[in-house]
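Re: adenosine-3',5'-cyclic-monophosphate structure - here you go.
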Amino acid sequence: MTLRTRIYGLLDPSSHEHAARQLRIVEVLVILLGISTVSAGTVDSLAPGARMTAAVITGIVATLFFVEYLVRLWVAPESAVAQADSPLRSRLRWMVSAEGIVNLLAIIPALATASGGARIGAESASVFVLLWVLKLATHAPGVGLIARVFHNERSALAAAAALFAIVIFSSATLAHWLEGDKQPEHFGSIPAALWWAVVTLTTTGYGDTVPLSTAGRMVGGIVMVCGICVLALLAGILATGFAAEVHRVQYVRIWELVAQVPFFADTGAVAISDIVERLRSRSYPAGANVLRKGEPGDSMYFIVTGSVEVKLATGNRTLADGSFFGEMALLDRRPRSADVVTTTPCTMLVLNVVDFYQLAGQQPQLIAAIEAEAKLRRGDPVIVGS
Ligand code: CMP
């Protein structure tokens, strides 16, 4: 693996590798630090020393973004879509992609400062903050998810929006009829009455425009109740859309991980989908104590990548990719028999105790295979066919 491939892997936003995740966290912290120091610089009452420190930190953050841009440009040919292109073409492709443009915008403060065109001070602060907030948005894991939810639920959202429009226009028209003569400045035309309709329908109720007639107030009451219904409808559509999309993403990810564990290789598609629903993925850095001897057993673990060491009185046993551990406490209903510590960064699939027993009822052959391995580990004689 070349250095460029390794760095591309670390910068890949879809990577679940421990180091890549940590790098993403560091990057988000650096962006937040930059936004905070730039914002702090706009406070008039800030002491000169603190202002100076904030300006220095802002400069460092801007320089880091500049270096990051160059590194991302350098590794761009490693992307899967760029494999067929020349390095120059793939770099150009990255530069004009949404990611490339956002990263380019984020280095404008560094370029402007370096060229002397701007001073990191209050006058350019708002521009810096906006550009860096944009960069922060690309790191928010939910942005793509939100876009997919809106896309998936577009017909339901369009129906709710149509309902919204119907209530707004009909209530503005009614309010115009009923209140137009009494309050011509607020209800004299339908467009003017729309402000009241929107404020009332969204249940914001600024109180700047209020119907005075009894009929107008009755319309107002109905619009408020309609507002609650429409907002509840929108919240329901988005909440179920989110839940379904998160479940889908999780399912695909676990499915991919399960495919890497040889233990599940002979399991049929229906059984696998049952197992996938029950597993959760978890990452550990090297040296993490996953299980401690004597603790109650609440789950078992399948190693997808990495290796762990089981600390036994008779010596340490290493378990690597495709192996599992933590089964004994569940099978024997006893506390953990040994400490288990990761020796490399690990990705694991975790099966909790409730799902373990349910799976034992539905997939007895799987649990029998786990039991057979546990017997070997305990040193019990394995009876063929048992
Ligand atoms: P559990 O007892 O739940 O927690 C410690 C785990 O270490 C245990 O389950 C097994 O999965 C694992 N383990 C215990 N003894 C051995 C062994 N001899 N070889 C490999 N793994 C073991």
